[in-house]
Write a structure and sequence with these properties.
single chain, 230 residues, mainly alpha
Length: 230
């Protein structure tokens, strides 16, 4: 597709009144190894016929673009959860990259996030844990997940957890998760703070305030081999 031709197609793809037959023709431009205009993949309210073409598109880049569309319905994007390419599944797990802080992105359904968190490919699991678009219920469910990396993410979202969801984390079998939990608890629990103060290194962390604690949580995760393999 020459540059001039591509530019013209981009302009057509941005037309909000684009009829469905023409939309399907634009999607067909990628059937020979090329890619359809990105704007056609990021349209809102795509008809089922267009979504079906995208999901079956032979070019993984097309499916990745759709997986990261901020305008696509979450239920439509979620259908890529079983995509054969881990790069596509990772793009779905992370979700749209949004640079406008005012923009709202509808999260994936919890029922889709759960299997992504157990995906056999580490990159998919890591992408989900790094996603800024998780629902509070998805994060809360991580507090009792069998993977250490998931429980660590639940600790990082401490304020979003209920007392019951936090209850098992202080006795977590992974030392990195326990350490992260202590750093969170010490901001609110004088008994935990007193325990930490008996260790000079922990005392410095406990007295450094929330911003410093956030840095220490990152350091704890970096130092824990279990959290990297999660």
């Amino acid at each position: 597709m020459v540059a001039l031709h591509a530019s013209a197609l981009d302009g057509v793809a941005r037309n909000p009144a684009l009829p469905t037959p023409l939309l399907l023709r634009l999607l067909a431009f990628g059937a020979d190894g090329d890619r359809p205009p990105r704007d056609v993949l990021h349209r809102a309210k795509l008809p089922e016929s267009a979504v079906a073409l995208i999901l079956a598109h032979p070019n993984p880049g097309v499916r990745i673009d759709f997986a990261m569309s901020a305008r696509a319905e979450p239920a439509q994007r979620a259908r890529l959860a079983d995509d054969p390419s881990p790069k596509v599944r990772a793009a779905l797990a992370y979700g749209p990259e949004v640079y406008d802080p005012r923009a709202k992105v509808a999260p994936l359904p919890d029922a889709v996030c759960a299997p992504l968190l157990d995906d056999p490919d580490h990159s998919v699991r890591a992408a989900l844990l790094d996603s800024p678009h998780l629902t509070p219920t998805s994060v809360a469910a991580m507090a009792t997940h069998h993977r250490e990396a998931a429980r660590w993410e639940a600790v990082r979202a401490w304020d979003a957890l209920s007392a019951g969801e936090r209850s098992a984390l202080p006795a977590d079998p992974d030392p990195g998760v326990r350490r992260a939990t202590e750093l969170q608890e010490c901001q609110r629990d004088t008994r935990v703070t007193a325990s930490l103060l008996r260790d000079p290194k922990s005392a410095a962390e406990a007295l450094s305030g929330p911003a410093r604690v956030a840095q220490q949580l990152t350091a704890v995760r970096r130092e824990s081999p279990a959290l990297h393999g999660g």
